[in-house]
Design goal:
- The protein is of the alpha+beta class and about 90 residues long.
- It folds into 2 domains: about 1-50, no CATH class; about 55-85, no CATH class.
- The protein is about 40% helix and about 15% strand.
- The protein is built from 4 helices and 4 strands, in the order E-H-E-E-H-E-H-H.
- It has a two-stranded parallel sheet with strand order 1-4. The protein has a two-stranded antiparallel sheet with strand order 2-3.
- It is flat, with a radius of gyration of 15 Å.
- The model has no long low-confidence stretch (mean pLDDT about 75).
Amino acid sequence: MNILRKIKVFGDSILKGIQLDPITKRYHINNNIGVDMLSEKFSLSITNHSKFGCTITKGKIVLGKYLDKASGALDVFFARTVYTLIPKVKNS
């Protein structure tokens, strides 16, 4: 497969594929959210950096750490644009 674009996904438990088992009432990972199908269909490389319990505050920290290590001017431009759109949340 010829990769046309690389996508990095940051999110919470929904994008991680974490679900509550109705019988055991315990959380488990079900990564059957179609990432592989999207990758193949659109020639994408998708890396999922989503984390369970990743609130907006934690997410901004995770994204900030990633941006500190990121390379590629266009990637950093788009990621920093999104980063600045995340509302400032006061620590309580």
